[in-house]
Design brief:
Layout: E1 25-31, E2 34-40, H1 50-64, E3 71-76, H2 87-92, H3 100-104, H4 109-118, E4 123-127, E5 130-132, H5 134-141, E6 144-148, E7 152-154, H6 168-176, H7 178-185, E8 191-192, H8 193-199, E9 204-206, H9 211-223, H10 227-240, H11 245-259, H12 263-274
Parallel strand pairs: 2-3, 3-4, 4-6, 5-7, 6-9
Antiparallel strand pairs: 1-2, 7-8
Helix pairs in contact: 1-4, 4-5, 5-6, 6-7, 10-11
Length: 283
Amino acid sequence: MGNHIGGERPDATVSQEAGADGDGAVTVHRDDAVLRLTLDRPSHRNALTQLMIRALVDALTEAAADDSLRAVHLQGAGDDFCAGVDLVGANSRRRPRTGDLTRRIPHAAHRVIELVSTIHLPVVCSVQGRAVGFGCNLALAADFTVAAADAVFWEPFVERGFSPDSGSTWLAPRLVGLARARRMLLLGEKVSGIDAAEWGLIHQVVGAPELSGAAGKLLDRLSHGPTVAIGLAKQALGFGQHATLSQSLNQELFNLELSCRTDDFKEGMEAFRQRRPPEFNGR
């Protein structure tokens, strides 16, 4: 089943049509309870245009309110995941006015990172080839990123003459510590898929031919899990990154109160009593 963001074509899978100038697209496909978002601009290593970023914001915003969804999958078409935001293409048509970045980006690229990090659905990201700049941070913001061994994670901001953005200075040090974050963000060191897994930057590394299967197995597990409890656990993990222990304990208590009122909690307890695997329905 497909979905056309903002349209009336339930059988479509493309959220925006690729224009003659190579604007690219984000393909939005519904696979049972999994929403699959594919960055579809392989001729430009899936570098994101403003239209593609807007499509991601729209798709993730709609997904956050869809009770029938239980997981989100992010992937790139072709040989690469994402080469970042296409700044050259964006600035070639007109000269931005002063204050353009501070006016626009919080509602565009930054909003995508926030949605991936805070949506109450588990987000799995598949990375092949390059994950650069915003593409790298999109992968780091996901709950689980599975990468091919020959994938490359790269934060080239300083090498281009400007400071890091899209959450890189928040995400990287929390995942790999300050020393390695400095290597990525101040020296612009490229990190292979193998090193990324060893560092704890991502969830798993596999051979390129196994990438689809590994991501699919993880998505299947998550999409059959207790969706409300997973969402509340994800929320508590994010909250705990800037809270005291006492504050986190209180947050966990409120979340526990909510999760104990779900059908999945009742099923989990009944399955435990009957010594059988639970069959969660996401409710």
